[in-house]
Protein: TetR/AcrR family transcriptional regulator
Organism: Sphaerisporangium rhizosphaerae
Amino acid sequence: MEERLGLRERKKRETRQRIADIAMGLFMMRGFDNVTVAEVARVADVSVNTVFNYFRTKEDLFLDRQDAFVEQPSRIVRERRPGESVIEALRRDYLQALDEGDWRSGLNEGAEVVTRMIDQSPSLLARMRELSERREERLAETLAEVTGAAEDDVMPVLAAAQICAVTRRLAADGVRRKAAGEGHEQVVAGVRAQALLAFDLLEKGLGRYGAG
């Protein structure tokens, strides 16, 4: 029974990923607003109802990593090393992601194409604003939890706002550089320099916050 359940779950994950990959391919070729869910279902060889079983909205098809995006900074804070401050942990993770070209840095392959599609779609822009707000709120909740902050303590909210503003601007700067035609190594070097400055400024303001 457990083996059958495991196989079923794996097949569901594979089906979900296949639908998301096909949808993104269509979106990148033709633009988000020019592709319908029915077209995605037809190319994926599933029914429209099957698509909606896995994805609540068309925007969810495009933003299939939204849960990871919302939770990412909170996860880094929760998993920080003993004695490591919040800023130290987040800086370490960001620089690692930057070097690896991981989506966490906002400089993964195709990031500028994705950003352009979002900018061209009002519904995607609205969803990204919503996700960014949820990400910041979730981080504030996590900071309050790990530091034992009182309910009326504004520090977690202020810290989360500053941290999320920095990572958002770094990603935007990287996309801007790529769109301007800079080479990959040049883009990474430029964003790294900005990241070091930004996290240093955060550390000067927040100090050993959350170091335990």
Residues 33 and 121 are 7 Å apart (CA to CA). The first helix runs from residue 2 to 30.
